Amino acid sequence: MLRTWARAHPHRTALVHGERRLSYAELESAADRVARRLAGLGIAAGDRVVLQLPNIPEFFAVFFGLQRLGAVPVLALPLHRRSEIVHLCRLSEAVAYVVPDVHQGFDHRELAAEVVKEAPCLRHVLVVGDPGTHTPLDGPGTGVSGVSPVHDDASEVALLLVSGGTTGLPKLIPRTHDDYAYNVRASAELCRFGPDTVYLAALPVAHNFALGCPGVLGALHAGGTAVLTDEPDPDAAFALIERERVTATALVPPTARVWATATGWAGADLSSLRLLQVGGARLLPEHAIQVRGAFGPVLQQVFGMAEGLLNYTEPDAPEDVVLHTQGRPLSPDDEIRIVDEDDRDVPPGAVGRLLTRGPYTLRGYYRAPEHNTTAFTADGHYRTGDLVRRTPTGHLVVEGRVKEQINRGGDKVAAAEVEQQLITHPAIADAAVVPVPDDLLGERTCAFVVPAPDAEAPGRKEAAAFLRERGLAPYKIPDRIEVLDALPVTAVGKTDKRALTSLANALTGIAGRARP
Ligand code: OOB
User: What CDD domains does the annotation carry (predicted)?
Assistant: First the structure.
């Protein structure tokens, strides 16, 4: 795809980052350079490479360079730390790990040095910027001028996305060339992207939303421009929107609300904005009204998942649909079932569990045969874990979830992953993590811990330091720790998360009254 775009309009601007501007021709040759460099290091078709880069042009040079070689990027998030990265490297048997030198004060070279000790499959750590003791990404490649694309089968895996997760360790989602290209093309069409599109990537481009829904890839597919930034705060973002005449962007609900408030006092000219996508977590109707009030009829709700299925409110949808639903499936071939706990269809309009199957939805997690037996129905429907209802117009409203995941303003935290980390603490005998409502983030995490015999359970600060030391991503560290003598159990002997959620809420009430 990149080669086609670069031939069609080599001199148009593809990517903007700060003062840097890359034309399509420059992006094309940057991808070629990376491909030759990686080929020179022995990286070949089928190899997996963990890519952990922020929103900088090199992300796309490496992404497309890997595509060119037929190698598969594993898209780690910028906030992933040792625990996640080691797991992703081992699971994918990655041969290389690509990192920035220092990003937002965090030295990724130090992290990489720890990772290589625990993931012997890694043969190379490639650094964008000052490589320290590792290998520079920039460097001599093979002499061959231009590595030609090796694909002959569009059903092969093109990239591996990280799942929000419900189990102890993150899962990888195989996305194929044909499914992901469709994802990008159909999304770009629905969102009316064209050569005049200027897309601002303010969410991490390693996440499906900003990468391909329609995201940066959609903007490039349409012949437009993508502006990359890691600063979604309104001061920086509004200045960029004004300077670059940004036409479209994607946000999670907390950021959308901050932006909406900021329009009241910021003087920037935002008149170029034609599409403001909000998704990744529930946008409450009152917040949708606030955002639409501030930005006008440019708001679009997006209910998507890295696993595939995307729902969008259409750009010409009635106001009521935009304010009160999370959109309609992208493809006419997306199959939706809304079922009860025995997989029986609920009556039309009733709330149930969302199952889906379709042209760009995964058929199985990567190297997870056991998990796949429960994550899918026998006939291949993916169990999203979301509770939805369908309106007469076919739009979905997200009403909750059955999966044990905390959605912290769009950042997904698998309860089991944090629980398993917590119980490695010598003073913790048992742990259960539940969501608590939060005005800004929608939800935060509350961990209930049971102290080990004769031990005193750690407080929040100590637990946080412990989990950071274990290499857990910062957004997974519990916002609250509560100590119990024992965890409540259900009639069948499972931890009663519902009781814990109510308890957490009751404790919030008490804390709220105690601290006016
Ligand atoms: C996006 O992808 P993931 O993989 O980080 O998370 C998917 C999950 C969904 O299953 C759902 O539980 C939740 O995030 N979610 C929403 C939502 N959008 C996602 N819940 C309520 N309302 C929404 N609008 O989050 C994602 C991927 C592509 C595009 C947009 C979001």
Answer: 23DHB-AMP_lg
Whether residue 516 is predicted with pLDDT greater than 50 in this model: the reply is no
Contacts of 471 (CB under 8 A, 6+ apart): 81, 82, 83, 84, 85, 86, 114
The finding on whether 213 has its CB within 6 A of some atom of ligand 1 is yes
Counting ligand 1 atoms within 8 A of each CB, the residue from 305, 353, 406 with the most, and so the one to mutate, is 305
- Residue 279: helix, strand or coil by DSSP? strand
**Atom 16, ligand 1: residue with shortest CA distance:** 281
**For residue 307, which of 156, 167, 174 has the smallest C-alpha distance?**
174
Spatial contact of 181 and 67, defined as CB atoms under 8 Å apart:
no
pLDDT at 511 (0 to 100): 54
Q: Whose CA is nearest to atom 7 of ligand 1?
A: 305
| Burial class of 426 by CB neighbour count within 10 A (0 to 12, 13 to 18, 19+) | exposed
Q: Which two tokens stand for residue 284?
A: 């409450």
Distance from Cα 279 to the centre of ligand 1, integer Å: 6
> In degrees rounded to 5, what are phi and psi of residue 96?
-150, 160
Q: Is the CB of 303 under 6 A from ligand 1?
A: yes
ipTM confidence = 1.00
H, E, C per residue of 413-451: EEHHHHHHHHCCCCCEEEEEEEEEEECCCEEEEEEEEEE
Strands 135-136 and 157-162: unpaired
Triad 438, 205, 242: Cα angle to 5°: 85
pLDDT digits (tens, 9 = 90+) for 414-444: 999 999 999 999 999 999 999 999 999 999 9
Check pLDDT > 50 for residue 30.
yes
Rounded to whole angstroms, the Cα distance separating 289 from 322 reads 9
Residue 408 pLDDT > 60, yes or no? yes
Query: How far is ligand 1, taken at its centre, from the CA of residue 114, in Å?
Result: 32
Query: Helices (DSSP H) in 70-138: which residue ranges?
Result: 82-92, 108-118
Could you tell me if the CB of 401 is within 6 A of ligand 1?
yes
